[in-house]
Task: structure prediction
Amino acid sequence: MTNNKYKILLVEDDANICTVVATMLESSDYQVILAQTCALAKTLFASYQPDVVILDLGLPDMDGMQFLKFVRQDSLTPIIILSARSNERDKVTALDMGANDYVTKPFSSAELLARVRVALRNYRHSAEEGKFPGGRFKCRDMLIDYDARQVFIGGQEIKLTQTEYNIVALLSEHCGKMMTYSAIVKGVWGYSTEGSTKKLQVNMANIRKKFGARPGETWYITNELGVGYRMNGEEEE
Amino acid sequence: MRKRKIMRNIALSAGIFILAVVFGVLFQKLEVQEHITTVFVFAVFLIALLTDGYVYGVVATFAGMLAINYAFTYPFFILNFIDPANLISAIIMVTVAILTGTLTTKVKRQDAIKMETEKERMRANLLRAVSHDLRTPLTTIYSASSTLRENRRTLTPEQQDAVLKSIQEDAEWLMRMVENLLSITRIDSGRIKIIKTPTVLDELIDSVMNKFRNRYPGQKVRLELPEEIVVIPMDTILMEQVIINILENAVFHAAGMTTLSLKVSTQGKQAVFEIADDGCGINEERIRHILNGSYDDQEERADSRKGNAGIGLSVCATIVKAHGGSISARNRKEGGAVFRFTLDKEDAMDDE
Result:
């Protein structure tokens, strides 16, 4: 039985959530593979080679993190975490261990489907074309010229400092992936000190001002309080 | 914390004792030595009253005894334990110290018990109100979903949609309620102080507005934020909840509202949040009651849906107070209500 639908491995132990999420995904034309336990998930991952993994962190047999580690040993398959509210630390750990994104329970179908689309697109992007073609990144009205280290919006150059540019460039290279504060700090400054998250946030506030973004309006970068930032891909609202 | 308490007690005791000595010297100059003992008895009483436990009072007693014996009674500057007058004053002082210590400790303990009972009562009230309120949406969800499964064929698409809509709405209501309950447990659990992380105001508002817009796409909010970058130490999840609850309260209860606005300004070391609507206004008395933390379900019973407002706002008050801020609500002269709360902001930025 072969088809060219995208395969999604759903690792979740709650039967009802499984049913609902599987229905949601199948009706959007994805093929869903279900695993209730971490052990089964490992087997299924190896035999099906799914395009995306949706992983609940609270699994009965092993912590979801174990599975995350297992996948990340030799694969870049996008992983979306399902997590409960209020434990930012779990989210941050999962993201730092290689998860691409997370959705907080309770979530709507639109939310989850949007994340799946973004994850798939970026995976395709990096897998097929390598780094962005022509040293440029384009997203709606924004253009980043990596060679000239310049950022334009609607043809208008945005004057950024070195640090600010580095942050924007880093996020764009990982477009669609939720980047934790510590991952960005490491990528931009190379080391992290005590006040570095705050330094990052202040820089980000300046970037936001320069981009002319008003709080609550969508712009190119989403901020998840206590977790990190994500540059949005083209499709996402 | 403990160390600071001990330091405070020692400082207090020393201060009072020095004052007593000063008075002692003064009395001696005025040649009314017979009252010096009284001064020390009074000092010991004060120390026992104002410090925690017995220790300070008893130590002060012995110090006082020595002082009187050595400096203030004949023979001067010689310790003399044989004089019955000295012995009697010593016994009086020790008794006073121990009695006062016992009494104050008892009163303090009783106060703590009273506060604990009060808290317990509030929690019980809240729990009762909440579980009562939870039943209504659960009933809807349960009966609506079984209706759909059993009678799908006889229902028109419109009817099906209406039933589904009621499920969705009540599930959303439950989600909000659970968020509030989680917030309470986050504060109450083990009485651990909330963990504050420095947060950029713009990011907080950004996140809040994104969530709010997702839930109420039709409701515009006018924003007014300070130009400079403001950093506020806070538990972001809880603080988001505060703003969303107050905005939501306006959406549900401010009948006739046309504009809803959120304004943040800085006053000295504080950030002031003001959420204003131009709706029908509020019952100031009742809201003050809720914000003071005396959440009582008596008035809420008439309409269980209103209960959410009470819980939401009392959660706001709890959170803001746990952050060391203050919260208030009043009606505006031009109509509508304004909720106002303050938080301490971080001092000026020290980077770059």
Notes: Residues 297-304 of chain B have pLDDT under 50 and may be disordered. The first helix of chain B runs from residue 2 to 29.
